[in-house]
Design a protein that fits this description.
heterodimer, A: four-stranded antiparallel β-sheet, three-stranded antiparallel β-sheet, globular, B: eight-stranded parallel β-sheet, 37% helix
């Protein structure tokens, strides 16, 4: 079972940085990607507990086989505010070790408002 | 136990033993040119630190060229039941300090021919390191292809003092040649001076003992560079052997490299593993001079952190002043088979175990 929890209006969500919303004890970062999709991550880095979502939103380099630099996932990466670990906003995964994940919430948009599913 | 000594120095009394192996312009320079010492000195730029006692053990006193082998046989190989000794030359790696890389390459080439001609046939336990001038990467690659196929030439050797870190693409022709000839690439403490102007961070230290303790700094740079520049992605099977550069620093540098890589992976998108994983698969450290803390548990914990059972290889550094004797290496008993021999046999595939000395 889960409850739908209102976070913010969709026009409040920017593409260049997270919108931070406090829900009870939880701090949550809301992101809008270039394709318009909305994502929500717990604002808590699994590395050292820092404010993950307050770090810069940016892209990263594609894995290559030589000295090539292909910049990908523009605005789909959040770098933790403290140590710069890169997390994929779509999946919550830490790019260097994808077993490590930031907590991700399922989002729903209703009437231009952003909701997440919280465990009841 | 099968013992491979990964750092056994074959000395000469006089560098003029190279004359028969030189020709043309560079022989003329070697014979008639300005000398860096008395007749018989090997041409190289000198360190600004002079060993107050000289490098050699004081019980090793060759008079004739052939004494160098006879004393080594008696006081090292036979005494300690060494099964295989990997010859690492002595002065030739100092060619890396010369500004003229072509002269440096000519000296290395002469040394390689001398080593193959004079040293290798003397003892069935000998395998040789061929020396190259790293600041002449094209010439070095040619030399690797010229003599690297010899059945008892088992690695390419340079000094750890260098113009620039060894991961730099400037050096990559050397690794391509090592890969082609299936040879490990080794760097041995040395080459401080001349064009290798920055062996110590923050500027020159004052005393010899002080400096000698700090020389591993350059090896840290090379290790980080080889990993970061993706040398082990381009040549996945390449083994790099770091000789005489200390050991206990390795885990702390790997911890730092791993931590930084986790944050800034995007700078080096060609890497596919953590720096510490490349270390474990591709880099081997020789033991001498193994650090000597007051409480050996501190050393062992450190060695465990670098998977020392699989990454360390015994080396004596015969006949130098900081020599480690075979029976004086303080490592866990259940590592000894690996560290004294098996790890080296994994790296140096040309060594056949059945070649145990009679």
């Amino acid at each position: 079972m889960s409850d739908l929890q209102y976070l913010c209006d969709i026009h409040e969500v920017r593409e260049d940085k997270a919108t931070i919303v406090q829900i009870g004890k939880r701090s949550i970062g809301v992101f809008k990607l270039n394709d318009g999709s909305i994502h929500a991550l717990l604002n808590l880095c699994p590395h050292k507990g820092a404010a993950l979502c307050e770090g810069p939103v940016c892209g990263t380099t594609k894995e290559t086989n030589d000295y090539e630099f292909e910049y990908i996932q523009r605005n789909e990466i959040v770098r933790c505010a403290w140590h710069g670990w890169e997390f994929d906003i779509k999946t919550g995964e830490f790019i260097v070790d994808r077993k490590i994940k930031a907590r991700k919430f399922l989002t729903e948009i209703k009437d231009q408002k952003v909701y997440i599913q919280l465990p009841s | 136990m099968f013992i491979v000594d990964c750092d056994c120095h074959n000395y000469w009394c006089d560098a003029r033993v190279l004359e028969p192996y030189m020709d043309g312009l560079f022989k003329d320079m070697f014979v008639r040119g300005e000398r860096t010492g008395p007749p018989g000195a090997f041409p190289h730029a000198h360190r600004p630190w002079f060993h107050p006692e000289g490098f050699a053990r004081k019980d090793i006193n060759p008079i004739n060229e052939d004494d160098n082998y006879l004393i080594m046989k008696e006081k090292h190989l036979d005494l300690h039941n060494i099964d295989i000794a990997i010859l690492t030359g002595d002065e030739p790696i100092e060619a890396s300090t010369l500004a003229n890389p072509y002269y440096a390459s000519a000296l290395c080439k002469a040394y390689n021919d001398y080593m193959i001609d004079y040293w290798i046939p003397k003892d069935s336990r000998f395998y040789g390191s061929m020396v190259v001038a790293p600041h002449d990467p094209i010439g070095a690659a040619e030399e690797i292809r010229r003599v690297g196929g010899h059945e008892r030439v088992i690695q390419v050797l340079v000094s750890h003092g260098a113009n620039r870190p060894y991961g730099d693409p400037f050096y990559h022709p050397i690794y391509e040649a090592c890969h082609e000839m299936n040879l490990p690439f080794a760097l041995h403490l040395g080459g401080q001076g001349g064009v290798n102007a920055n062996p110590i961070g923050a500027g020159p230290t004052t005393f010899f003992w002080e400096t000698h303790a700090l020389l591993p700094q350059s090896a840290m740079t090379h290790m980080a560079s080889l990993i970061a520049q993706g040398v082990f992605e381009k040549w996945k099977d390449l083994k790099v052997v770091i000789i005489e550069c200390g050991v206990a620093w390795v885990p702390s540098v790997l911890w730092r490299l791993d931590a930084n890589y986790k944050a800034l992976r995007k700078e080096t998108p060609w890497l596919k593993q953590l720096p510490s994983e490349y270390f474990k698969s591709n880099i081997r450290m020789s033991t001498q001079p193994l650090e000597q803390p007051a409480d050996v548990r501190h050393l062992w914990a450190t060695l465990e952190a670098m998977d020392g059972k699989n990454t360390l290889m015994f080396a004596s550094d015969y006949p130098h002043w900081d020599y480690d004797a075979v029976n004086k290496i303080n490592i866990p008993d259940d590592w000894k088979e690996n560290v004294y021999g098996n790890n080296a046999l994994e790296v140096y595939k040309k060594i056949k175990r059945q070649e145990k000395a009679a």
